[in-house]
Amino acid sequence: ATNLPVTDKFGVCNPYVIMAIGSSFHKTTVKQSTLNPQWDEAYEFPVQPSMLQGMLLTLTVEDHSAALRDEPVGQLSIPLLQLMVRKEWSAAFDLRTMKSTTNDDTPSTVHLRLRYDPGTEGQ
């Protein structure tokens, strides 16, 4: 991710991402004190071809706090139908940010590489 917003008065963010498709989800590791985290982590979701239409991959970036409750930083949703057209998709997606303590207008982005492997039907 790049240019995450500053969400507290100390100017730090301890981001992690929750990825969800329907009721299935994964959570990344927490990256300490950075507005430009790199996760380089891979996750798999079991998705049937019939699920692609109308389903979304939703990513929520949260700011981890040891003392307080974690706060949402931003969110984005990607239609899975795009993966039927492109089996592999690598792009920077704009993050819809929740709040920021700065007046910076530079968009926050999350860089993703998505891959759809339909496998062998009937197995």
**Radius of gyration, rounded?**
16 Å
What does the main sheet amount to?
5 strands, antiparallel
How many helical stretches?
A: 2
Write the H/E string, N to C. EEHEEHEEE
Cα end-to-end separation: 36 Å
Overall pLDDT metric:
86
How many β-strands, per DSSP? 7
Low-pLDDT stretches: none
Helix content: under 10%
Computed structural class:
mainly beta
Q: What is the topology, as strand order, of the major beta sheet?
A: 2-1-3-4-6
In words, what does this structure look like?
This protein has helices at residues 49-52, 82-85; strands at 15-21, 24-27, 56-63, 71-79, 88-94, 96-97, 109-115. It is mainly beta and 123 residues long. The mean pLDDT is 86.
How do the strands and helices of this protein lay out in sequence?
Elements: E1 15-21, E2 24-27, H1 49-52, E3 56-63, E4 71-79, H2 82-85, E5 88-94, E6 96-97, E7 109-115
Antiparallel strand pairs: 1-2, 1-3, 3-4, 4-6, 5-7
